[in-house]
Fold this sequence. Notes:
Oligomer: single chain
Strand order of the largest sheet: 4-3-5-6-7-8-9-14-13
Helix content: 25-40%
Bound molecules: 5'-O-[hydroxy(phenylacetyl)phosphoryl]adenosine
Structural class: alpha/beta
Shape: globular
Number of strands: 20
Radius of gyration: 22 Å
Amino acid sequence: MERYWNKEIECMSREDMKKLQDERLVAQVKHVYENVKYYRDLMDKKGVTPDDIKSTDDLHKLPFLTKADLRDAYPYGLLAKPLSECVRIQSTSGTTGRRVVAFYTQHDIDLWEDCCARAITAAGGTKDDVCQVCYGYGLFTGGPGLNGGSHKVGCLTLPMSSGNTERQIQFMRDLGSTILCCTPSYAAYIGETLHDMGYTTDDIKLKAGIFGAEPWTEEMRHQIEDLLGIKAYDIYGLTETSGPGVSFECSEQTGMHINEDHFIAEIIDPDTGEVLPEGSVGELVFTSLTKEAFPLLRYRTRDICVLSRKKCSCGRTLIKMSKPKGRSDDMLIIRGVNVFPSQIETVLIEQGYSSNYRIEVDRKNNTDTLDIYVEMNDNHFSDVVMEIQKSEEKLASAIKIMLGINPKVHLVSPKSITRSEGKAVRVIDKRKLHD
Length: 435
Ligand code: DLL
C-alpha cells in the first residue's frame, strides 16, 4: 500500500497545484525583488518588474541565475532575509571550484525536512523504522537533511555520518536498521564490506535505501539491491535548493517526483536558454517558491534530464524527473565524442564487473586517450596474463560499441581502487592539468 507524507499536496490535481504555484511565484518574485539587490539588477537589466509576473505562465520572462552569479554574489549577495532571521548555513565542498553557501531561516529548515520526510515515507518509512543516516554531516546537506526528515517521520534515527564502515555494519546489526541513507557508492561499499565480514543479507534487517547526491545507473541499483537485500530509492537535490528532497522516488521507480509546491522545474536548451517542451532532454532549472533566506529564481543546475507528467501508479500527481545523466559539466568530450561516465558504468555492470572503476582521460601527441581501470572480481579473477588480456579486450569492445570510441581497459586486482564513503570521484581528466 502506497503511503504519503502529505497526500493533499502529493496527489493534488494539476489545476490546484498550478493555482498554488501561481500565487506563490507572484509573492516570491516580489520578495526577491525587494530584498535581493543582485537579482533586482538582473531583472532591471532585462526590463522585468514584479508586476509583469502574474502567474507561472510568465516565468520565462525572469532572468536565469547561474553558478557564476552565485560566485559573484558570494557570500551574502543573494540573501533575502536579515542575518538575524537566519539560523543555519550549509555548503558544498567546493571541490569543483565552486563553493556554494546556502542560508536557512527556521521556516526554511522545516520545509526542507518536510520534503525529506516525503522521500522517507515514499520509501516505506514509518515511525516504526530504524533509519541509519550515513551521508556526511556538517556543511554537506545530505546528513542534516535526511536526519531532519527521519525525525519528522518519527523513525529511530542513527546519525552515523559516513566512514568507519565496519562500525556502520555493527550498528546496523545491533540496532536492526531498516532504512539506509547514503550515497549509492557508499551503499555498494557497505554491501561489499558486509559480505567480506562473513555476513549475508539474512544477518541484517534493512528493507530500503535512500540513495542520491551523485549519478548512479539502473545497473548499479540492481547490484546494491542484491548486495543488501533491499529496494533502493533515488533522491535528488542540491545545496542551492536546500539539499536532498527536491525530488524523490516512489514505489514505481520510474523517475523522481518533484515537490512542486516548493519548486517549479523547467527544462531548457543549455546552449540557447530556450524552454523545451515536456519530454525533451535538457538542463534542469529550478525556481524555489517557498524559501525565505536563499530563494533562487530560475537557477540553472547544469543537470541534464527529462521531465514527465505521465500518470504514476503511486497516485502522486507531482511531475517526475528522470535520473540525471550527470551534470553537463561532467560530460567528457573525448576525441570529439560526448561521453557520460554513466554510459561506461552501464557496460561494466552489464558485463559482470563492479562499480569500482576509475576513468582517466589524457592528451598524448595531440590525441585524447581514454583509460579505464576496472577491478576484477571473483568471476573474472585470473593470474594468467593471456586470460586477463582477453577479458580486457572483450570489455574494451563492449565499451566501444556504447561510446563509439576505443578505450584502453586495465583490469586491476580486487579491492585496489579506493572506495568512496561520500560522493565517488571516478573521473580524472588530466587534460585540464596540461591546459
Ligand atoms: O548532493 C544534495 C543531496 C544530498 C542529494 C543527499 C541527495 C542526497 P550538492 O552537494 O550541492 O547537493 O550536489 C548537487 O549532485 O546538482 C547533481 O549533479 C548531483 N546529484 C544529487 N542527487 C543526485 C541524484 C547534494 N539522485 C548535485 N542523481 C546535483 C544524480 C545527483 N545526481
